[in-house]
Q: What sequence folds into this?
């Protein structure tokens, strides 16, 4: 599992009770330090691990718990600790041994450690859910109830059978024999009368008493519950029934059901879930549940911000010659680990490590830097690398790492995250990308064109061109963000994915928008220098009045022209559709050879009808695109005329190998056409 090869440093044991999970607990495991961390925590999660009542699966969940802890602090600034309870297992220790032990642990948390039940969330998986439910029903008073409860693939004591058993028995990791062994390990092969006793008149002490239909779940369960259920687990109906009964009794219930999930998928997501977005969705729902259950201030306990590092920390770091990382890679590249002087040198070092090492090496380097050098500039190098290679889950993990250290992201951070989802094949990539765009508001950022462009790439990659064009329309009609050349290029790339009856029309619409934007900013024809200066002053006053700048001008680049010509060739179904490309080349570069004039004339447009062009100078890349545009339409004569006219009008234009190859191919095709016509003429005569 990524970055969690060993997590013994996250655990601190309490004899005969269980163990705490929090980051770097072993660095200061004194009782006073542990108590301080418990006191500072905004939420304590008491987890009762499953294992069929016969063994303990808790240690397998440590990577998941670590992810939860980091996500809570990164996303909501919630400080948390998890206490994994230990209890005696069957068949040696039958009911109510486990219930009694968990009740004692809960009493120790609330009475000995003085943890307010309002900041405790109890959680359980598998058979641990039955123990938790029995404990809450039999042992915990109404006044001492925790604030919330999480049930992951819960076993509640119901008999095997039902629709989910029939549908998922061949797909899940447990079966009827598993349930039988669980029941024997919890209750024994026969009812044990000695285990029955009265508990304050509340109920006869029997296992699974909460299953009785006359039991109101709201009378003993917390006010909020979260369920993680798998679409392919046999216990799906069992968990769903419990969630339904809880909701009907007035409890606020949230259910996360992963269609591909088997038993314990949410506790071992790296093993059972391949879709990274599904893992992130589960994690987001968990964080939202905890945040809404435990009310906290946005900045609890005066967290130190990056700009608030102490002078002693800075002085101590400056006295160190190297960034201290204990790894074979760091030892082999000792010079690279020399202590940087500022964040920009540190950022360059991260880039170097990513070139010669691994993502883990770069992450270890950043975490070992003094906190005043851990700026978003440095972390963005790592996030951008993951995004570039389509590793969205890694990028999100490092975002959480950065936030855990109290470092706020910048606009580039969100741009990198959107890039990551632009290369994802997950069906949830659109949902995740849109969520990241919305998250910018949490940090008082307004999306810029680069963020919009990256979101549009996500839509295109996910096969939703209609969303791309809808977003283009939205920003085109707003005053916040104006589309730039990249925006239009991405929108043009979306057009060929649309249905044939509408795609050419959309290309025409985008071209008209581009044309209007450019003409709006073109200087008016003036007769004197004085009038030109007056026009410029008027433009500047208008820009100030409408809160615009020169940056709002649409600057045509090679990529936009290439995207436009390519979109025309891919969508043109009639000769009139081709005119968009002819018009664009004439408008941008004043290139309109005889064959282009003929095409315009056939469609009722004379050269005199055309407005003066903008007088741009084509690049070699544009010339190559024009040749390929003509070739794709099989207008080879048009391509040759464009080439000859461009070289004549722009003598400084020097064709490269690609242009030469394209031109040679066009000449070859022209020669073939001529030979074919000669043969046809000869055969007729």
A:
């Amino acid at each position: 599992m990524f970055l969690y090869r060993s997590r013994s440093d996250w655990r601190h044991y309490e004899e005969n009770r269980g163990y705490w999970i929090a980051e770097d607990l072993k660095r200061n495991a004194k009782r006073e330090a542990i108590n301080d961390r418990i006191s500072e925590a905004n939420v304590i999660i008491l987890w009762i691990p499953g294992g069929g009542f016969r063994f303990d699966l808790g240690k397998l969940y440590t990577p998941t718990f670590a992810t939860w802890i980091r996500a809570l602090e990164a996303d909501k600034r919630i400080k948390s600790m998890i206490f994994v309870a230990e209890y005696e297992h069957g068949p040696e220790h039958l009911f109510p041994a486990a219930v009694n032990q968990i009740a004692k642990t809960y009493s120790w948390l609330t009475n000995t450690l003085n943890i307010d039940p309002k900041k405790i969330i109890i959680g359980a998986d598998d058979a641990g859910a039955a123990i938790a439910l029995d404990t809450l029903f039999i042992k915990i008073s109404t006044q001492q109830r925790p604030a919330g409860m999480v049930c992951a693939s819960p076993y509640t004591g119901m008999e095997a059978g039902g629709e989910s058993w029939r549908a998922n028995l061949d797909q899940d990791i447990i079966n009827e024999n598993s349930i039988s062994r669980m029941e024997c390990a919890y209750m024994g092969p026969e009812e044990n009368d000695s285990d029955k006793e009265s508990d304050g008149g509340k109920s006869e002490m029997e296992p699974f008493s909460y299953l009785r239909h006359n039991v109101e779940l709201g009378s003993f369960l917390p006010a909020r519950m979260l369920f993680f259920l798998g679409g392919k687990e046999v216990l799906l109906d069992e968990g769903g029934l419990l969630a339904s009964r809880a909701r009907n009794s007035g409890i606020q219930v949230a259910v996360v059901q992963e269609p591909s999930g088997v038993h314990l998928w949410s506790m071992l997501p790296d093993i059972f879930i391949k879709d990274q977005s599904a893992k992130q969705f589960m994690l987001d729902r968990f964080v939202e549940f905890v945040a809404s259950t435990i009310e906290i201030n946005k900045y609890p306990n005066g967290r130190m911000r990056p700009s608030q590092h102490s002078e002693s920390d800075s002085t101590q770091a400056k006295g160190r010659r190297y960034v201290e990382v204990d790894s074979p890679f760091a030892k082999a590249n000792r010079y690279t680990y020399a202590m940087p002087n500022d964040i920009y040198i540190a950022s360059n070092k991260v880039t170097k490590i990513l070139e010669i090492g691994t993502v883990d090496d770069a992450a270890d380097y950043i975490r070992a830097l003094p906190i005043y050098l851990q700026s978003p500039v440095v972390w963005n190098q790592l996030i951008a690398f993951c995004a570039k290679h389509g590793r969205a889950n890694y990028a999100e993990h490092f975002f959480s790492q950065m936030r855990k250290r109290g470092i706020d992201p910048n606009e580039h951070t969100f741009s990198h995250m959107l890039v990551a989802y632009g290369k994802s094949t997950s069906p949830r990539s659109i949902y995740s990308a849109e969520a990241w765009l919305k998250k910018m508001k949490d940090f008082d950022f307004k999306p810029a064109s680069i963020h919009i462009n990256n979101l549009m790439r996500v839509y295109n990659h996910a096969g939703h061109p209609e969303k791309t064009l809808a977003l283009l329309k939205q920003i085109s009609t707003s005053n916040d963000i104006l589309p730039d050349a990249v925006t239009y290029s991405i929108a043009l790339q979306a057009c060929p994915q649309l249905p044939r009856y509408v795609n050419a029309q959309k290309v025409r619409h985008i071209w008209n928008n581009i044309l209007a934007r450019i003409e709006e900013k073109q200087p008016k024809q003036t007769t004197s220098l004085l009038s030109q200066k007056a026009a410029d002053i008027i433009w500047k006053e208008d820009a100030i009045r409408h809160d615009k700048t020169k940056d709002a001008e649409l600057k045509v680049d090679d990529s936009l022209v290439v995207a436009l010509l390519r979109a025309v060739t891919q969508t043109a179904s009639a000769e009139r559709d081709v005119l968009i490309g002819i018009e664009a080349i004439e408008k941008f570069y004043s290139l309109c050879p005889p064959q282009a004039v003929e095409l315009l004339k056939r469609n009722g447009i004379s050269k005199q009808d055309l407005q003066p062009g903008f007088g741009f100078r084509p690049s070699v890349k544009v010339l190559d695109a024009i040749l390929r545009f003509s070739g794709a339409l099989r207008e080879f004569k048009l391509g040759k005329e464009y080439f000859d006219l461009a070289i004549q009008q722009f003598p400084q234009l020097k064709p490269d190998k690609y242009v030469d190859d394209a031109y040679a191919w066009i000449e070859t095709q022209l020669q073939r056409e001529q030979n074919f016509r000669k043969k046809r003429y000869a055969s007729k005569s």
Summary: The chain has a mean pLDDT of 83. Residues 44 and 120 are 5 Å apart (CA to CA). The radius of gyration is 34 Å. The beta strands are 11-14, 18-21, 43-48, 80-85, 120-126, 148-154, 224-230, 252-258.
